């Protein structure tokens, strides 16, 4: 089975494999429904295409396929990956990784290896993946950047104000919004960060460096008797 976001690529690869004597059950392109399609048809080998092998969660369909149909050998079809991408594919349960620009003979060899239970990946790609796993690059700010990307600019401002100790009324006044809207923003921030309180949100933001990345905000002048 060949499943890829680009229908033309999927159909071309399926046709080439048919000409070489393989029985291809389907050539489809539903990105979100790839796992369901493979689980339903249960082929011996499935080639799943991806354009972004390093994107978080991109191999979730592979995880699901291997959980529900462990007998299906999954080959990832994608661009030249960075080491983290190839490592993530194998960690998800893939039997191999085939580059988009691979010749049909190479694709066929990968299929045969996968069917035999062997790892199907070019030696240089595998070497790069092992090197990255053994000597990972230090990226201390990754978590803060990931969290920052989850929030809208307005939610980032809300989080900074929460970390500064502002209550709902002060947040609303400082941002020029209704208290109910401010409360909604706060709850959305807590949900996205996966925490249960404002204190936890502030601690997480400080620990990951998110507050440093967000930068300062302009606080409006307040009366001496303002509540905090």
From TrEMBL:
Ranges of residues in domain HTH luxR-type: 144-209
InterPro entries registered for this protein in UniProt: CheY-like_superfamily, Sig_transdc_resp-reg_C-effctor, Sig_transdc_resp-reg_receiver, Tscrpt_reg_LuxR_C
Pfam families cross-referenced by the UniProt entry: GerE (PF00196), Response_reg (PF00072)
Response regulatory domain ranges (all copies): 1-115
Keywords of this entry: DNA-binding, Transcription, Transcription regulation
Highest taxon, organism lineage: Bacteria
GO molecular function list: DNA binding
Gene3D superfamilies membership: 3.40.50.2300
PANTHER family cross-referenced by the UniProt entry: DNA-BINDING TRANSCRIPTIONAL ACTIVATOR DEVR_DOSR (PTHR44688)
Protein name, as recorded: DNA-binding NarL/FixJ family response regulator
């Amino acid at each position: 089975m060949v499943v890829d976001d680009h229908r033309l690529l999927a159909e071309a690869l399926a046709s080439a494999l048919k000409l070489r004597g393989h029985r291809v059950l389907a050539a489809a392109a539903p990105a979100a429904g790839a796992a369901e399609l493979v689980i339903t048809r249960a082929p011996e080998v499935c080639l799943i295409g991806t354009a972004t092998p390093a994107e978080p969660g991109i191999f979730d369909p592979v995880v699901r396929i291997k959980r529900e149909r462990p007998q299906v050998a999954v080959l990832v079809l994608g661009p030249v990956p960075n080491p983290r991408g190839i490592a993530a594919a194998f960690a998800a349960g893939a039997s191999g990784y085939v580059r988009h620009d691979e010749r049909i003979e190479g694709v066929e060899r990968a299929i045969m290896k996968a069917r035999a239970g062997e790892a199907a990946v070019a030696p240089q790609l595998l070497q790069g993946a092992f090197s990255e796993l053994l000597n990972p690059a230090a990226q201390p700010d990754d978590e803060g950047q990931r969290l920052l990307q989850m929030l809208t600019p307005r939610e980032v401002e809300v989080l900074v104000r929460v970390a500064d100790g502002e209550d709902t009324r002060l947040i609303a006044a400082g941002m020029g919004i209704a208290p109910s809207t401010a409360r909604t923003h706060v709850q959305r921030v807590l949900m996205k960060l996966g925490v249960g309180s404002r204190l936890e949100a502030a601690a997480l933001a400080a620990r990951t460096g998110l507050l440093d990345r967000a930068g300062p905000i302009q606080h409006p002048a307040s009366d001496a008797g303002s509540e905090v």
